[in-house]
Structures are given as structure tokens and as C-alpha cells.
Amino acid sequence: MLQYIIKRLGSMAVTLLVIITLTFFLMHSIPGSPFNEERATSEAVQKNLESYYHLDEPLYVQYFLYLKSVATFDFGPSIKKSSQTVNEMLGRGFPVSFELGMVTLIVAIFSGILLGIIAALRHNGIIDYLAMTIAVVGISVPNFVLATLLIQQLAVTWGLLPPATWASPKHMILPTLALATGPMAIIARLTRASMMEVLTQDYIRTAKAKGLSPVKIVFKHALKNALLPVVTILGSLAASILTGTFVIEKIFAIPGMGKYFVESINQRDYPVIMGTTIFYSTMLIVMLFLVDLAYGILDPRIKLHKKEGK
Amino acid sequence: MEKVLEVKDLHVSFKTYGGEVKAVRGVTFDLHKGETLAIVGESGCGKSVTSQSIMRLIPEPPGKFDGGSIIFKGKDLTKLRDQEMRKIRGSDISMIFQDPMTALNPTLMVGDQLTEGILQHMKVSREQAKKIAVEMLDLVGIPSPHIRLKQYPHQFSGGMRQRIVIAMALVCQPEVLIADEPTTALDVTIQAQILELFRDIQKKTGVSIILITHDLGVVAQVADRIAVMYAGKIVETGTRREIFYQPQHPYTKGLLNSVPRLDVDGADLVPIGGTPPDLFSPPVGCPFTARCPYAMEVCDRVYPEKTTLSDSHGVDCWLQDERAKKLLASR
What we know:
The complex is a heterodimer of chains A (310) and B (331).
Chain A: H1 2-29, H2 43-52, H3 59-71, H4 86-121, H5 126-140, H6 143-157, H7 169-198, H8 202-209, H9 214-251, H10 257-266, H11 270-298
Chain B: E1 3-16, E2 19-32, E3 36-40, H1 47-54, E4 63-72, E5 75-76, H2 82-88, E6 93-96, H3 100-103, H4 110-121, H5 126-139, H6 145-148, H7 158-170, E7 176-180, H8 188-205, E8 208-213, H9 216-222, E9 225-230, E10 233-239, H10 240-245, H11 250-257, H12 297-301, E11 306-308, E12 314-316, H13 322-330
Parallel strand pairs in B: 3-8, 3-9, 6-7, 7-8
Antiparallel strand pairs in B: 1-2, 1-4, 4-5, 9-10, 10-12, 11-12
Helix pairs in contact in B: 4-5, 5-7
Protein name (chain B): ABC transporter ATP-binding protein
GO molecular function, one term (chain B): ATP hydrolysis activity
InterPro entries (chain B): AAA+_ATPase, ABC_Ni/Peptide_Import, ABC_transporter-like_ATP-bd, ABC_transporter-like_CS, Oligopep_ABC_C, P-loop_NTPase
């Protein structure tokens, strides 16, 4: 197990290096620079700025300089907001984004699985149709549309919840709802399908033949098996929630990382682009790693380390 | 002989897109204490449906109980509420299924799957349950049971898994054990071991066994009595000796003839021609008529009454009628 984790950490580092390299060169291949603005700057000032940020050096030198600073976890200063470093920006934005993402993920997973189980147990009944209708709507309505509808109804018309910003748990409800509905719907559909399949398996009949109660059969015998496909997509779902946060943060004026990410690209703020990209990639890679670990725990047949068993 | 279980005139059908399949059409049999009753017949004759009906494990829908009674300890199982039935399942009557590879939950430890039945039905602590599980694994011949309890089904071979399934069925010391083709999925050497195990356990615990199989070799080894099933009906019942040496129903004879023989040189394999009838619209008369070499006009029109040949031997066939004997003699 430990050997597997060490191996994975190694490959994660390589993946990250590839991402850094690709992003770095892609970013510099986009025309324009941080100092290309309508406001005219004198040539001398421009030269000075460029040399300060090492932009006058050849690209490969810049690349290695950047790698060197990343290795010490220093993502450099922001070019556009010269008083701040990228580290500071991430430090401020990350807790907010993380909170939103995690709450969303938890809400989506639990409500999705619950909805899926209920639908599977009552399949082709009214509850099933209701649950699956919600699921289809959840999948097909984009979260930014849902977000605006929610704000309009719950915040503006009924005045139940605050329409934007990030101050109290009450403020979290709308953005979480907008962000969680899509993933929840996907999880619900998947859980329903795999639950229905598992419930026809022979070992479920064996469990029934032992005289176990329906609750025990569903939660002890069926659920663990039914969740395997759900766990598989959790990695990519986490990714979609992460990227979904850009838009949702913008709509609800949430001071997370998404804002920095989008702005930095428009403004060619190279260090910020790199910093946020690295940060998001790291989170995603770690998430996928955790999913793989969870897989091994759920299904004993999956051996995470080789050279055992057959 | 004390009767443990009485099945009377059991009818079960299934709703399908093609119509209603009448899978079991009036099955009646008794199970005596400490005996092994074998129900034999070809695929699709209703053996498994009969056995699963006793446990009330037929999913409804599409399954449908159409009538009859199953008397166990003075109670009619068909009339019990689900909750009462759950108390009987696994504790008084338990069941072994055909395929040991799929009958165990792949994601739960074997020990867990063994003890949950004990904890469900007996008032014992977790520790005691574990002790019982270890004893049971020992009884079915699994070495070092303490270690094995913490393993998962995929770490066992097919024969070992069937032993675990058997142990699981026996943990609560049931009075009736229903074994639905317990050896079909196993290879021959393991089959012999498992059958040996059945005999052994019956001697030790006095459990009554209903053995469902299509393998007459298995029947010859372990059955005390045999019920031959065809197209949802039991067509002949008798002791092992009666069925093997004096089979009366043409279907029973056909079954026995279609067993490959190694002890007779150059013996031909004689299959029963034709296929079983369509149970969407089962025939009014004897369902075997179309395949029967002795078929008479009456066979197609009226189902024969049961003829009792001895205390244990009974057969549903028109050939037993006096008039039929005359007719055949004149042919």
C-alpha cells in the first residue's frame, strides 16, 4: 500500500510538471503581453518593466527561472496588482473556493445517492419518475441559468435568502444549490442504474434467504457494490464542480479563486495564470488519487499494489 | 414418519410480455424429518420456482402465487406477513443456491456474511456469533477458519465457496435445507466432496433436505425419496429404489435412459425426443403426451389421476389404468 502511494505521488509530480510546462508555453504563445495596453507607456518604462519581470530573457530561461521559484512554493508577484503576490491571492481565495466546492460536493454526493436509491427501490413508480425528472432537469439546465433563476425567485421575489456575496451560512445556500444540482443529478441517475442491477444479483437473493430486513439488504449488501461506478465518476465530477465555481463565483460575487483565474487570463498576468492553474491541477490530481484509494477500500478485489493474489 | 413440510397443490405463475407462464401447476409433496427428497426434472420444469416459493423468494411482480398451501410447523407459509416470513428464512428453512461464484457478496468479508444470519435470528453476542461461524466452517471442512473469516469471497475456490454457502445456510440449525442444484456449477471431484458433506451434515444435525437437481447421478448417491417433475407438475414420486428400479412414468423411464452409461459396453445414449410443452398455454391433458411413446387418445384430453402403487410410490399416468393395459395388450 505504502509502495503504491509513493509510486502515485511520483507520477503525480510528473503530471504536474507536464501541466506546468504546457501551460507555460501555451500562455506565452498567446499574442500580447501584460504591458500591451491602450494607455501609452514610454519605451524606457516598458523596457524597465520587462526586465524587472524577466520578460526580456529568452523563453527557456524564463521557464527555468519559474520552475526554480515554484520548487520553493513561491509563485511570484502579480504583474497587474503589483502590491500582491500570487501566494497571497491564493491564500485569500482558496479557503472560500474550497469551502464552496466541498459543501457542494458533499451535498451532491449525499442527495444524489439518496435520490438514486429511492428511485431504484421504487422503480417505475411515481417517486422514481419524479426523482428522474428532477435528475434530467438537473443535468440539462446549466448552472449559470439555474443560478439566475434561483436568485430571481428565492432572493428577489420571495426575499428568503441573500442574493449574493459570502458572509454567513445563509449566503452559501444559493450558490451551493446552483452548483450541486448538476452533479447530484448525474450521481442520482448512476446510483439508480447500478442499484437496480445490483439488486438482481444472486448475493442479494442469498441475503434475503438469510431473513435479513430490506434496510439491511440495501445498505449493507447492495449499496457498497452499487457505489463502485459512482466513485469512478467522482474524480471527473470534482473537476466539473471546480470549473463550475468560476462562473458561480462570478454570479454570486464570491471572493474565491475563480475571479483571479478569469481576470488573469484576460490581462495576461502570467504569474497569476500559472499559479491558479497549478493550484487547480494539484487539487484535481489529489482528488483523483483519493478516488482511486476509495475504490480499493470499497472493492477488496481491486488490489492497489501489484504482485499479490494471482 | 413425521412430516416437516407439506406442500399442497401449489400454483405459481409469471407475468411476462408474452403472456402468463404457468410455471408450477399444482405441486404436492411432503418432506419427512431427516430425509433427503430429490426433485428432479429437466430445465424449466419448475423445480427452482417450487423451491423458491417455499422460501417466498419469488419476486412479485412478475411472479404470482396462484394458490395452494405450504404447511410448516402448523403454519401456512403462504399466508404469513413478510415480517413473520423473515423470521423463518435462514433460521427454520434455509437455502443453498446454484452458483457459489455469485451467491456471496464480493465486497463483504466471509465472516461478516456468516455472522449476520446468526445475529439476525439468535440472541447472541458478536463474539459468540463468531465462535459459531468458526465451528460451522470447521464442520464444512474449511481449514484454519479463524483466518478465513477475515477473507473475501474472491480468495476462495469454487468448491470452498460452496462450502461457505452451505455453512451460511446451516448456521442457525434449520430444520429444512433447500439445495437448488448445489453441485451443478462444480467440477466432478468437488461434487463428490460436497455430496459427502451433505450426508455427513444430515447425520450430525438431522436436517431434512430438499435437493433440486437434474443430475440423476447425484440423486442416486444421496436421495432417500425422489419426486420427478415435468412441466410444472410432479408426475412420479417414490423411494430411490422404486424410481430407479421400477420407474412407471414414461418420462421417468426416458430420463433414466438418457443417462450416459459407462458400465454397459456399446450402450447407446437415448435422448427423450421433442421438447417440453409451452407453459404459456399448458396442455389440458398429460403434458408429456407429445413426447410419449405410449401416448393414447385419452392422454391428450384428460390429466390422469394419481395412482398409488405403494405407500411411497405414486404416479400420474393413464398407463396405470386397467383399460390401458388391455389396449396395449391388443396392440
